[in-house]
Structures are given as C-alpha cells and as structure tokens.
Design brief:
The complex is a heterodimer. By secondary structure, chain A is mostly beta strands. Chain A has no helices and 11 strands. Classes of the chains: A mainly beta, B mainly beta. Chains A and B meet through strand 4, strand 5, strand 9 and strand 10 of A and strand 5, strand 9 and strand 10 of B.
Chain lengths: ~110, ~110
Amino acid sequence: KNEVEQSPQNLTAQEGEFITINCSYSVGISALHWLQQHPGGGIVSLFMLSSGKKKHGRLIATINIQEKHSSLHITASHPRDSAVYICAVRVSGAQKLVFGQGTRLTINP
Amino acid sequence: DAGITQSPRHKVTETGTPVTLRCHQTENHRYMYWYRQDPGHGLRLIHYSYGVKDTDKGEVSDGYSVSRSKTEDFLLTLESATSSQTSVYFCAISESGPMSEQFFGPGTRLTVL
C-alpha cells in the first residue's frame, strides 16, 4: 500500500463546477505539498501546509492532521485548470518527500 | 519562475552507454533533488543534495550516481544505461529542504534502447 493515496485518479467535470481532490496518508508528517503538472509536463508548487487551510485565488487547500487527510478544492473550474494534481508529504524526521500518483483533472468547456 | 534548467531536454541512447544529465540553478538554493517519473508511479526520489559535495540516496538510487561540485550544478549519471531507466527525469530545488517549497525544472525525457 502506498504511503500517499490520492482520489480520484481521474476526474472529468464541466466548466464552472466545484472540484475536490483528496489525499490520504498513512505516516506521520511535518508538511504536505500540493503540486500541479501541466499537460506539457512542467510541475508547479501550489501549496505547502502543515495545518489548517490556505487559499490562493480559486484554489483552496485544507489539511486535517488527526485524520491524515488533505483536500484540494477548485472553485469555478476552468479548462485551463486541466492538469495532473499531485500530493506529496514530508515524513516526520525525513529529508525527502513521498508523492502520490496524482489525479488527472479534465475540465470541459 | 525559479531559475532552473535541465540539459539535455531529450536524449535517446543505447543500453550500456553512460549518460549524464545536468541540472543548473541560479537561485542559490541549498537543496537539489533528482526525481524520475514513470506511468503508474508517482515522482520517486533518486538522489538529493543538501550542499556542495553533500549528497544522499533516495528510494530508487540503484544504477545512478550524482555529483555536486558547485552550488548551482547537480549532475545525475547513469554509468551504464538500461532500458528500465527510460523515464522522465526532473530536477528540483528548495531553499531549506522539504519544509520549504520545491521548484521543479522542465524535465528531461530519456529513452534507452
């Protein structure tokens, strides 16, 4: 079993819909990252959080440390949000990140 | 955008040949990482560096070596490439390790025939 599990693996929605991508992990962590990988392959860091909630534009990331769960929400989704979204955790005491397999999001106009 | 470049961006080589990939940064970040990305797997850490001449292994380090003689450059070498090393390789940097944001390079697509 992977230490970091994302769901769903694939998600297709219509423009304007509210999107939720989930990340669950089975280890103790000190931080969680959300990344976006564009269709062209480039990877961009969206958020790094260790508690609570962060918001940037239409993107919101939340984390519940006790439940070992994080969500990434996209409000008013747009076709340009189509990408693979990757969750990664820093395992407590470790110097590296462990990555989920990603969620492929497609937003249709 | 963080100043990270990778070279080459694409390479096709034959089994048994040595290959070196270069990651160059202009941000003066202390940490540098090499990952590989394969279908069905998330990004997996090959090696990382926490300073000049300071490196450590990741989860998939077999068959790979690294060197960092300058802050700005982190080299990944496949001593004798195998077909299982066909992958997309990403370099990343961060200012202070996994507790800080990571910035990724554009990736290198390597094909080993």
